[in-house]
């Protein structure tokens, strides 16, 4: 993986009627995640034209940093709460991206 970093795109759709709850939940999770070791970027977004759909864009210095973030005690506590707010599973919305530069 070039540069060693990993990017995560996570998309989630709120259960009907839980849109504001999911937005508040994500908002509360952003700052602690930004403070985790190895975090480069952690940004939450609303998807235009799709109310209740959110995307989190994260970049981590390495897969090890991402794994440490995902394994943090607070994350284990947050997962059941998040599942109450989203349609589908957490894993369904995750895409891991690895940067590359095409040859010129």
Automatic annotation (TrEMBL):
Domain ABM: 6-94
Signal peptide: none
Native organism: Nocardia macrotermitis
Pfam families on file: ABM (PF03992)
InterPro entries: ABM_dom, AI-2_Isomerase_LsrG, Dimeric_a/b-barrel
Highest taxon above the source species: Bacteria
Protein's name according to its UniProt entry: ABM domain-containing protein
GO molecular function, a single term: catalytic activity
PROSITE patterns in the record: ABM
């Amino acid at each position: 993986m070039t540069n060693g970093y990993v990017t995560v795109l996570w998309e989630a759709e709120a259960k009907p009627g839980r849109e504001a709850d999911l937005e508040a939940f994500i908002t509360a999770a952003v700052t602690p995640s930004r403070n985790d070791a190895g975090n480069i970027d952690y940004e939450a977004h609303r998807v235009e034209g799709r109310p209740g759909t959110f995307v989190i864009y994260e970049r981590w210095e390495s897969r090890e940093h991402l794994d440490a973030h995902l394994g943090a005690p607070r994350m284990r506590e947050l997962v059941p709460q998040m599942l109450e707010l989203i349609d589908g599973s957490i894993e369904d919305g995750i895409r891991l991206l690895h940067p590359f530069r095409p040859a010129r």
